[in-house]
Amino acid sequence: MRITYLMINADIVCGGNRTVFGQVNGLIERGHDVKLLALAGDKPFIPLKTAVINVPRFDGMIPPSDIVVATFNIRALPRYNPNDEIPFYMALINESYYCDDPIHREICNLLYRSPMNLLVNSTWIMEIFRKELHRQSYRIPDGIDLDFFKSRKDKILCAKNGKVLKCIGAG
Prior knowledge:
Strand content: 25-35%
Strand order of the largest sheet: 3-2-1-4-5-6-7
Largest sheet: 7 strands, parallel
Low-confidence stretches: 155-161, 164-171
Oligomer: single chain
Number of domains: 1
CATH class: Alpha Beta
């Protein structure tokens, strides 16, 4: 399948970019043809199995794709075309909660009510969309690097008030 992701800046070190990069690498490992277009940045903070393609804008620059995944609201609505590829929007948070600008907040809410398919990475966001917006979303959990996050046998048990708690540490 031909899948294209749209990003603002591929160089920003943040959890949202980490989630997208993990999905891109995982889809490539499964044999999909994945492109990553960004308005800025071509040096992601984790190794990618594809190059970042910098474009000045998304309209007219997206290669033929079966699926296009927008990853931030300000570019998702202008990109949506019901006669084009299958449109997806990756919502890593409910962005309208964090918008001080009322116009930006309304863009978020319009997006969430659009016929785009909503992807989320947590049950918390999935429940917000279900309860508040009456929208179905599809959860794609983040991968966990089990070489980094692992049980530490030397500090696995902690005692407190006679109860035994399991502790997980990174190491």
